[in-house]
């Protein structure tokens, strides 16, 4: 069984640029959640996608957006990057109704904004 | 809103010492509670969980009991090993149909175990 994968591993951007991060969910999982983990902090919920629709959103501005594809993989897009966007971005896949809806996390993408 | 508070860190212990990492939460209803572990350069791994009051989650020698009366879920291990060095996160998940499985995390506690 393939676990959750994310790409790229690391990324460096400059302020004002746009970035796209990618996540492939675990086999059989139809829900993907994205989290932002700033250095020395716990992960903060950005949003969740279920069956290609946004299914809940945390306290993040609209310049954070996402997509989910028919194969349940997902993208996180961030426009107009700011220095404070530097963080580890984690995605987690799950399947409501299965295994108590446990979320399985990928290794993350480390984004640095200069 | 929901929140999770972990004990201030970091925690430094010698091998075979007893470990306690405190976690308290604020939430409505009956959330599920989790401990996740993050090893250097890796994502989060679920360590243990408890879904209702008085449940005890356990895994790899770690234990935590869901205490609703004190809104706590403290992590314990009787004898730590060097390989337990990592960052530990306490988290909760809302109960109820509108929660969509969102996890709320504490700030994390860095554990370092010396030989």
Set down the secondary structure blueprint:
The complex is a heterodimer of chains A (114) and B (115).
Chain A: E1 5-7, E2 10-13, E3 19-24, E4 31-37, E5 44-50, E6 53-57, E7 64-68, E8 74-78, E9 87-94, E10 104-105, E11 109-113
Parallel strand pairs in A: 2-11
Antiparallel strand pairs in A: 1-3, 3-8, 4-5, 4-9, 5-6, 7-8, 9-10, 9-11
Chain B: E1 3-6, E2 11-14, E3 19-21, E4 23-26, E5 32-38, E6 44-50, E7 56-59, E8 62-65, E9 75-77, E10 86-93, E11 103-105, E12 109-114
Parallel strand pairs in B: 2-12
Antiparallel strand pairs in B: 1-4, 3-9, 5-6, 5-10, 7-8, 8-9, 10-11, 10-12
The major beta sheet of chain B can be summarized as: 6 strands, mixed
Biggest sheet descriptor of chain A: 7 strands, mixed
Low-pLDDT stretches of chain A are: none
Number of DSSP strand runs of chain A: 11
Choose one word for the global shape of chain A: globular
**Individual helix count of chain B:** 0
Oligomer designation: heterodimer
Percentage of residues in DSSP E strands of chain B:
over 45%
């Amino acid at each position: 069984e393939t676990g959750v994968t994310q790409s790229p591993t690391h990324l460096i951007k400059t302020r004002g640029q746009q970035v796209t991060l990618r996540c492939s969910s675990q086999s059989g999982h139809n829900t993907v959640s994205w989290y932002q983990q700033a250095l020395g902090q716990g992960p903060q919920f950005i949003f969740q996608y279920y069956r290609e629709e946004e299914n809940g959103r945390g306290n993040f501005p609209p310049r954070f957006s996402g997509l989910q594809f028919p194969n349940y993989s997902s993208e996180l897009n961030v426009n107009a990057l700011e220095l404070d966007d530097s963080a580890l971005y984690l995605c987690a896949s799950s399947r409501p109704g299965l295994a108590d809806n446990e979320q399985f996390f990928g290794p993350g993408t480390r984004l640095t904004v200069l | 809103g929901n929140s999770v508070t972990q004990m201030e860190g970091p925690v430094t212990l010698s091998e075979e010492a007893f470990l306690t990492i405190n976690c308290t939460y604020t939430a409505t209803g009956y959330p599920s509670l989790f401990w996740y572990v993050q090893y250097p350069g890796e994502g989060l791994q679920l360590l243990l969980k408890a879904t209702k009051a008085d449940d005890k989650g356990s895994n790899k020698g770690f234990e935590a009991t869901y205490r609703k009366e004190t809104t706590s879920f403290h992590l314990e291990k009787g004898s730590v090993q060097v390989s337990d060095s990592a960052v530990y996160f306490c988290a909760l998940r809302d109960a109820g149909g509108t929660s969509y499985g969102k996890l709320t995390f504490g700030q994390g506690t860095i554990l370092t175990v010396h030989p």
